[in-house]
Design a protein that fits this description.
With about 525 residues, this protein is mostly helical. It has one domain: Up-down Bundle (Sodium/glucose cotransporter). It has 21 helices and no strands. Helix 5 runs parallel beside helix 11.
Length: about 525
């Protein structure tokens, strides 16, 4: 191993040990399920905001999105516009009301518990359906984070040739990333995850802002950016830098723009994001969190898109589709390589990528554990179990889901962006309409919610995985993102079934109406 690799490894080791220490500290403060899964509803504004956004913007922000922009140009950044709009709407429409409603509705600790309490589901049907959806799609989502960590490790320490991934290094990286994330999530629970996410969110922001600024300054000090692109094989920079054109000069298709903007719909149904709203201390902190989160997202999404474009003009080696997601890693390596001090600084910036990966995976594992422990085990299988037993089951669930995600991520050629896309669509379609209607439509019923949830999840699976159209999936045949279809179909089904179902009880309606007057 080279000296530079050893220096970077020291930076990584220091960072990982710090995360584990946080897990140890908070393990001593975790006494019950509310502590482990919701932190006692005591999050401050900064922690809530950065934890929510760091858990949202996973390895795809620093690897998947820059990789897409690197290959195809600014026509790929419509996703960023969709995500920004979704973030703003989520914080302004959902955050405050969800926080209040979950407290009033039986002090719900999880999203499935809120659904059950909101609709007075005595049989626990909606809890079980929700928990199954969470387990399925979070296994895929967590796999994307593990894959990001493995690709980071393999790119830095592997011996792959011609852009190929070193498979041995990939598997070793996958094991290391999985184990470290497991340790501090398993030990510390929600507070440990949120505290590490706060640190990781700040580190991500520093890395994602500093690197493209430095790279752009170096790249353009004696010639223009377009000239740099031409020198690195981009024949038509005016197309590469045009929002409405592909690199070959053809217009970006309307279906592509619609699909990219549709990513914003996913926010309303992301359990690992909206659970942060439930844990915020008070309304004042909600308003503070809202502003911090939106500023963070504007800066991080802008910087991620710039990384892809700048890397295309900066990197000496031209990356192909299989290695484009390592553009940010290679950019850091080329900039910070002259001496030990620069290499160590580069190692700290690389920890920003590690932070993005870990901040999402830990949150996903925790939400999955809460769904299995609180909603399936305690909610349906063994209702009279003790807090200690339920907490134990939740921790075992963390391990099981991590193992499943590990095997999904074993393929080094798996696309981070594709894995995230599938999971994002699944949650957005299944939970997004239910969350919105539960919060804002008093006529919504249990039958409507369960029907809409099932239709949303099944539509995404069918659209993305079953070859209906002449051997092609509907996703490939139409070019339309499954979330754009699944969200609205689930919404329609929820509304129609609710309207033909028996009206909600007076108790449910009274509780719904009381939320506007609640000050918590």
């Amino acid at each position: 191993m080279s000296t530079s690799n050893i220096i970077v490894l020291v930076a990584f080791a220091f960072y990982m040990v710090m995360m584990i220490i946080i897990g140890v500290v908070y393990s001593r403060k975790t006494k019950n399920n509310e502590d482990y899964f919701l932190g006692g509803r005591n999050l401050g504004g900064w922690t809530a905001a950065l934890s929510a956004q760091a858990s949202d913007m996973s390895g795809w922000l620093l690897m998947g999105l820059p990789g897409s922009v690197y290959l195809a140009g600014t026509g790929e950044i419509w996703i960023a516009f969709g995500l920004l709009l979704g973030t703003i709407l989520n914080w302004y429409i959902v955050s405050s009301r969800l926080r209040k409603y979950t407290i009033v509705a039986g002090n719900s600790l999880t999203i499935p518990s809120f659904f059950q309490n909101r609709y007075r589901d005595n049989k626990g049907v909606i809890k079980i359906v929700s928990a199954i959806i969470i387990a399925v799609f979070f296994a895929v989502y967590t796999a994307s984070a593990f894959s990001s960590g493995a690709k980071l490790f393999a790119t830095l320490f592997g011996n792959g040739q011609n852009g190929e991934m070193d498979q041995t290094a990939y598997v070793i990286g996958l094991i290391i990333a999985s184990v470290v994330i497991l340790i501090y999530t398993f030990m510390g629970g929600f507070k440990a995850v949120c505290t590490t996410d706060l640190i990781q969110g700040l580190l991500m922001l520093v890395a994602i802002l500093a690197v493209p600024i430095i790279a752009y300054a170096i790249l353009t000090w004696d010639h223009g950016f377009s000239t740099a692109l031409i020198s690195k094989g981009v024949d038509n920079p005016e197309n590469y830098l045009n929002l409405f054109k592909n690199t070959d000069g053809t217009p970006v298709k309307a279906v592509s723009i619609i699909s990219s903007l549709a990513w914003g719909l996913g926010y309303f149904g992301m359990p690992h994001i909206i659970i942060r709203f439930m844990a915020i201390k008070n309304e004042t902190e909600v308003k503070k969190s809202r502003k911090i989160a939106i500023i963070w997202v504007v800066l991080s999404l802008t910087a991620a898109c710039l990384i892809g474009m700048i890397a295309r003009g900066y990197l000496n080696e031209q990356l192909e589709a299989g290695s484009s997601e390592t553009a940010f890693i290679r950019l850091i390596q080329e900039i910070f390589s002259n001496n030990a001090v620069l290499i160590f600084i580069g190692g700290i910036f690389l920890c920003g990528i590690l932070a993005a990966i870990m901040s999402t995976a830990d949150s996903q594992l925790l939400v999955t554990a809460s769904a299995i422990s609180e909603d399936m085990y305690k909610g349906a299988i063994k209702k009279e179990t003790s807090e200690k037993n339920a907490l134990f089951v939740g921790k075992i669930a963390v391990i099981v889901v991590a193992v499943i995600a590990f095997f999904i991520a074993l393929d080094p050629n798996s696309s981070i962006m594709n894995l995230v896309s599938d999971a994002w669509a699944g949650f957005g379609s299944a939970f997004g309409p239910v969350v919105l209607l539960a919060l804002f439509w008093k006529r919504s019923t249990l039958s409507g919610a369960v029907s809409g949830m099932a239709v949303g999840a099944l539509l995404v699976i069918a659209w993305d995985y079953i070859p209906f159209a002449g051997g092609q999936t509907l996703s490939n045949a139409t070019g339309l993102y499954s979330l754009a279809v699944g969200f609205f179909l689930a919404l329609i089904v929820n509304i129609v079934v609710s309207l033909i179902s028996k009206k909600p009880s007076d108790e449910i309606v009274k509780e719904f109406d009381s939320i506007n007057n609640v000050e918590i």
